Structures are given as C-alpha cells and as structure tokens.
Amino acid sequence: MAEASGSPSAAEAALDPEFPPQSRPRSCTWPLPRPELAGPPADPDPEPGGGIGPGSGLGSPEEPGSGGVTTAAAAAAGGPGSGGTRKSGGGSGGGARRNAWGSQSYADLISQAIESAPDKRLTLAQIYEWMVRSVPYFRDKGDSNSSAGWKNSIRHNLSLHSKFIKVHNEATGKSSWWMLNPEGGKSGKAPRRRAASMDNSSKLAKVRGKASKKKAALQVPPEPSAESPGTQYPKWPGSPSARSSEDSDVWTSIRPRTSSNASTISLGLSPILTEQDDLPDDELLPSLGYSSASSNVPPTVTEELELIDGLNLMSPSSSLLSAQQHTSSSMAQRTPSFPLRTQSTATQAPSFGSSLFNPVDISLHSPGGHFSGPQTLEALLTSNSPPPSDVMMTQVDPILPQSGGRLNSQTFLLLGDQSSKSKMSSVNLLRKPSEQQLDSVGTTALASALTMVTAPQNAGGLSTLKTSNPVQSTQGVQQGALPPVSPATLTPFGGSQDRLPNDLDVDMYMENLECDVDYIINTDLMDGEGLDFNFEPIPSAPTYPSTSQASNHTWVPS
DNA sequence: AGCATTAAACATT
DNA sequence: AATGTTTAATGCT
C-alpha cells in the first residue's frame, strides 16, 4: 500500500552500487521525485527472490548470523545471490562491500531512503519498505517479523545517529516521521545524554531535554508541561507528491535528538522544542482559519525544519554571536517559510522536491555567495539586519514565541468562538500577519501591518484584513524583496508609508500589542484553563534564553 | 580509537 | 505489536 508514497525512484539510487550520498546533495539534481524518468529499468535485479542465492541458506529471517558472521555471511550468501550489488571487486582497495548488501552502511541506506522520499521523510515502516524494495539483499526479507535483525538495526541506527531526526506525526497515530537532520549528523553520533562527563562536550551540550525519560517522568511529576498545540500546517498543496495517505494533518514537532552543531540556536531551541511533546488535540486545529488565505499551504514542518536549519547554518557566520539576532531571524524565517515557499512552489513548481531541497542546499553552500529568487529574502534578512528590524524583532520575540503557526490557529479558533473583543481581533490579526509579513519583508511588512491594524478595529475590517494580508505578504516577498529594500525606505505598497512614523510607531504598536495580548491572556485564556506562560522571566535575556523562553511558553489549553 | 553491525533489554504508544 | 532508546558485545579499519 504504501507503495505509492514510497518512491521507486529511490530504488535506482540504492541499487546503484556506488553513489555516495554526499555527491548528490550538492548538485541537488539527483533526487528525482518520481521514477518516471528512469522508469523502466527500475530494477536491475530482475530476478526474484526465489533464486537469490543467499535466500536459500539464510532464508529464515532470523539470520544465521551470529557475531562475526557478517562478513562471512556476506561472502557466502551474498556472493551469489545478491546479484546486482556485488560489484566492487573483492577487496580491492576500499570499496569492497562490507555487508551483504553492499558497502553502504545502514545509516547510508536509511539516508537514501529518506532522501528518496518526496517529502524527505518516512516512517519506520516505510523505511523498511524501501529497503525491501530497493535493496536486493532485503528483498526476500521483507515479510519477516519486525524483529528481524535488520529491522532492529535500522531502528537502532535511526535512534543512534544524530543525522536522523524524528518528527512527530500525528496523522493517524502513525509512527513518527524520520528525516535527516540538515545540519547533519555529520560524523557525530548522537550525543549520548549526559552520561558521565559533560565536560568536554560542553558545547555540544547534550541538550536533549528528553534526557531521562523514565527517570524524568518519575521525577518530574506535576509539570503539565504545557505544550503547544501543534499546529498543523495543512499539507502542502501543490505537492505533486501529494502524500500517499494519512497525514492530512501532520503537525509534527521537531525534535532533533541531538543538535550536532554548537553553532546553532537550534541548540538552545531544541531542548525545548524537544520537550514539547504534546498535544493531542489534533482535531482542533485543522486548517480552520489559517488556511483562509490558502487552503493549501506549506509542506509541513518538514520544510520548515529544513529551512530553519539551513538558515542556521548560513547565518552563523555573521551573527553567530548575537543570540538575539539569531533567534529573531530564525523565527522570522521560520514562519515565513511557507508563504514564501508556497508561492514559489506553486509558481515554479517544476520539481517540488527540489524546491524544498534547494533552499537548504544553497544556504549551506554559499553562506553569503550568490543566491537567486527566494533565497534573496533570507539573505536580505540575514545580512541586512538593520537597526529597525532588529528592534522590531526583538520586541516581537517575546510575543510570537514559538507561535510559528500554531498560535495562529489557536488564536483563530478563539477568535471564532468569542470574538467579542475588538482588541482580540486586532491582536489576532496582527499576530498572524505580523509573522508572515514580518519575515517576508521585514520592515515593510510590518509597516503595512501596522497601518492596517491601526485602522480597522472591528470585525468587518478584520475579515478584510485577513484576506488581504496573505496576498500582500506574498507580493511583498516576491517582488518587494528582491528589489533593494532599503531599511530606511520602507515602502508599503499603498504608499501609506508617509503616515508611518517608523520605529517609534512600531515600538508603540508593539507595546500595545503586548498589552493586548497580556490582557487577553489574562482575561480570556486564563480562565479557560490553567495556562501558563511566563513572559517576563527574562527581562533582558541577552542570551539564548530568550529563545528558549519563547518556545517555552507554550500555551495550550489542554 | 572509532565506527558499524547485531542482539537484546527496556520504554512508549 | 510496532516503535524508539540504550547498552553491550564483537569485528573491522
């Protein structure tokens, strides 16, 4: 069944005896989403299992294997049967096949599997499937029990290596998605919790909040740990790869078990994010209002994740030190990811898969080199970081914590239910837009948002706004961004800029917003349930905390 | 010493 | 029962 999603395309890759995973990434050409191209020759290894050499002997799932057998088995069994794989001559210098299936390690195989997926993510089961389908050696081992040795190994590898990250998949109670960590697990394995001494790896910080699950669980009792409602961004539309099934709502939460690189905020962030496990209220946020603008949106967090990471990677060079900046930028970017991407995708969707991939790729490669199209924005934001924007960002930070998208949905929900307060509405409006626009054109957007918000205060205006916002932002992004958006110039489209006082205004605006929010929270949300958000904690959080904090206050009515 | 494969003991869902 | 995490033994480089 899953066949559909699985991508046969992968098969070729896998089959391909030699293809270093790394070569591709940079060229970004390889991952063809669909096999169509290669269609025919899909399997070089036509012969079915029956004959597979090894099969006979090793047929049983159990595998003979005892310890050292690996090699032996490979030699014995593999030799004949594997057919396709055995290519590298024995022993020659380095490329000899180390395992029965070839020279690739489980990790490599898994990576390939994931990469081959249109969305760059797969569930464990899908990975198994891919293996069975793509790697000759496992072909006949597919039906074996889940406890087949190789499956165990796959699982083991997934958990062990930092290059793989697990993303919560709320779809149908399915297992999580596994994707690869853009930052890459590099060579590092997962950071094993704090274990003995954390000294050396100080930077690496074993962040992983999950730390001791069982222990923690036992010890940390009360904390209802508010989680944030996952937001699910509606899946992404255009994606030709329309997911095979389930996942209509994959809100997913990211949790890099290990943030390999110290450089990123992800470090600071991850822990928290990680902990956000959360929420079950799935149904609650289905697209609802959020999609108002676009029923379809982005490709899930997946992309987001990638994007973010990419960002992180690229930005470090310049603003590695300033946590705040970093944070803000990341946030800004984060949200934006979709509008931006969506558009681009829709518009130039020649290869969805790649679109996803591209951004990251680019950022990775040329931190400050050349960019094109969409990336510009990122670059802009990152490199530019004009004072104003900075300010605004900073201010915003506290407010749109991890909200990313979830807040929105929630907000909307609330709004719908009880839109009694004009304030609220304005806030809501703002919020959403602010995020999007913010990132999109930074100042410009903000200005416009401001304008809009200021004016309308009633429901009517609201709706209008809502609708128009997205559009604007989009435009801004596409057209406005590219051109030189000088910090000082901020020009909204309408030319209403005149009235905007600038920073000051923004400032004020922000303040207001904050107040409102507070108010709202206190009033509306609070009584709802025991929500807890702590905004004030770090008044001047100069460092990471800000970020974490932000993500921390997740408010969720559970 | 570091990495990879296996196996297996838990823990979660 | 499927998933995930960890720890450990063992073999290769």
Descriptive overview:
Keywords: Cytoplasm, DNA-binding, Nucleus, Transcription, Transcription regulation. One of its GO terms (cellular component) is cytoplasm. This protein is mainly α and 558 residues long. α11 runs parallel beside α15. The protein is elongated. It binds a DNA duplex (13 and 13 nucleotides) through α4 and α8.
Quickly list its features.
disordered C terminus, disordered N terminus, 23 helices, four-stranded antiparallel sheet, mainly alpha, DNA-binding
In short:
With 558 residues, the protein is an all-alpha fold. It has 23 helices and four strands.
Provide a count of the helices: 23
The string of secondary-structure elements, in order, is HHHHHEHHHEEHEHHHHHHHHHHHHHH
Uncertain residue ranges: 1-94, 192-558
Residue share in β-strands: under 5%
Strand order within the widest beta sheet: 1-3-2-4
Shape: elongated
Distance between the termini: 35 Å
SS content category: mainly alpha
Main sheet characteristics: 4 strands, antiparallel
Mean pLDDT figure? 42
- The rounded Rg comes to 25 Å
Number of strands: 4
> Residue share in helices?
40-55%
